[in-house]
Fold these 2 entries.
Entry 1:
Amino acid sequence: METPIKMEAAAIMARSDGYRTKGRQLILSYLEATKERTVSVSEIQEFMEQQGNPVNVSTIYRNLDALVAQGKVMKFVADKGDKSTYRYIEPEHDCHKHLHIQCVKCGKVIHLECDFMRSIEKHVLEEHGISLLCENSILYGVCQGCKST
Ligand SMILES: [Zn+2]
Ligand SMILES: [Zn+2]
């Protein structure tokens, strides 16, 4: 009578798989809706609770790690290393190839998709011997909208 047990196990795995996928999709849809800015893990957790799908922090991290590995989400490592933030990668932007600058007032992220990126990369590499990792770097500033208020 081995077969029914195996089937049961497969059914449980399929269920938990479905659950995991649903949670991941919710996280991704939240990140897509907030793609203008970076979000923290606690914001994601709050959103999941609002959606009636509460998950613990380690599950969120696991899902985020998977989304980062899939190239769907970009992770920004904060100064002190304790609070990384995440942002949805828009397929139309080549976000791995340029830096981003974030407004410290409204949190909006601007893509630095201009020619000067190549000069920075070249300079940093040739003069300082460092290969720039756009991936985990973010610059801070104040955007036009926030400056005028
Ligand atoms: Zn970008
Ligand atoms: Zn702003």
Entry 2:
Amino acid sequence: MLKLVLLVILALLAEQRSQALEENTEEHLFPPIHPNCTQSLTELLLLRQEAQLNRMSAAEEATTQVLKETLQTLVQVRDSLNALRNTAQGHTPTSEAVVECVSPFTRVGERCLLLALNKMHTWASARHFCAAYGADLAHFSDINEYVAVLGYINTINELKKSVSIWIGGSDEVEEDNWVWVTGELMPRGSPFWGTKDGYRPQPSDGRSQNCAVLWQPDQYYIHDVSCTYKSAPLCQM
Ligand SMILES: [Ca+2]
């Protein structure tokens, strides 16, 4: 029993000595402040602050490096998963969906078009002609699609026949509210619509002309004409 008591006392003394050594080490780095010390209080505070900032800076650098390595690993995992998915779907990342058109339609950009140059129809009859193919009169909303349509017309109309071409736009429901057969608003002004006699911007003829045509005498700019006029249908699947 006596031995046990002596061992406990010795252990307590050893722990007190260890704490004293740690305090001495801390005091060596940051000596305690004494009223009579020649080193100013400001310098001591600055030294402590500098040491703390150095420790924080080192920790921040280590954290940043870990985050960079984690990000790099995640990017590699993402790329690997994308490659596996593309392989499973049987295509490469650069492959694109291709529009397939059934004859007699021709692929023009992302659409299928049919220009029936030898079939003269009124506007309503032209819609019926297209409907027989499950299509409707053509429509376009931006300059790229318009240019593609003009290119297709020039390719088909090799003989430069003087034929104007119906497209799917009208203001029959409400005067001067030009809409496509889809219900979308038609683009207005240049470069889609032409001019009559070189100076009257189209559309220009009010209630008497409610259907849109690619007008051959004006280089296939859009004009308003009577819906009973006879033109060639341009169908869009
Ligand atoms: Ca009109």
